[in-house]
Write a structure and sequence with these properties.
The protein is of the alpha/beta class. It is built from 2 helices and 5 strands; from the N terminus they run E-E-H-E-E-H-E. It has a 5-stranded mixed sheet, covered by helices on one side.
């Protein structure tokens, strides 16, 4: 369904995974739209009580890939349900800002 993220529902939890592990989950233009769509779906689902945002592989997010024209970070600030970011590895401008906007941050068990 998505090109740069994975979206799963696990009971009352929506798990959104940044899914570009070979590129350390750098943000490219389709990712912002895909994240917006997935978060909107989670917020509209009455059974979802929390969103977990995590990165695939060894990094949560290494920031923006400016080579592809990305210009602005995302934020969990407008989400109307709690957000938890599972972080692992490097976080750079863009990815780190997104993690700090979460309601809670927890290290990944990986």
């Amino acid at each position: 369904m998505y090109e740069t993220i994975d979206y799963q529902i696990e009971g009352p939890v929506a798990v959104i995974t940044l899914d570009r592990p070979e590129q350390l989950n750098t943000i490219v233009p389709p990712m912002l739209e895909e994240l917006d769509d997935a978060v909107t779906a989670a917020v509209r689902d009455d059974d979802v009580k929390v969103i977990v945002l995590q990165g695939a592989g060894r990094s949560f997010c290494a920031g923006f890939s400016f080579a592809n024209g990305s210009t602005r970070p995302g934020s969990a600030a407008g989400w109307h349900i709690p957000a938890v970011h599972r972080t692992s590895g490097p976080r750079r401008p863009g990815g780190g800002r997104s993690a700090w906007s979460a309601h809670a941050r927890r290290p990944s068990p990986r």
